[in-house]
Amino acid sequence: MNTSITGRHFELTDAIKSYAEAAIEGLNKYNLDIISANTVISANERNGKKGFSTEFIINLKDKNTLVITQNDKDVYAAIDLAIERMKKALRRHSEKIKQHKIMSFKDLGEEAEAVSEMTVEDVEIVPMDLELHKPLDFEEAIEALMAEKKRQFIVFNDHDGHMRVMYKRADGRFGLY
Question: What mean pLDDT comes out for the span 57-85?
Answer without folding.
Answer: 91
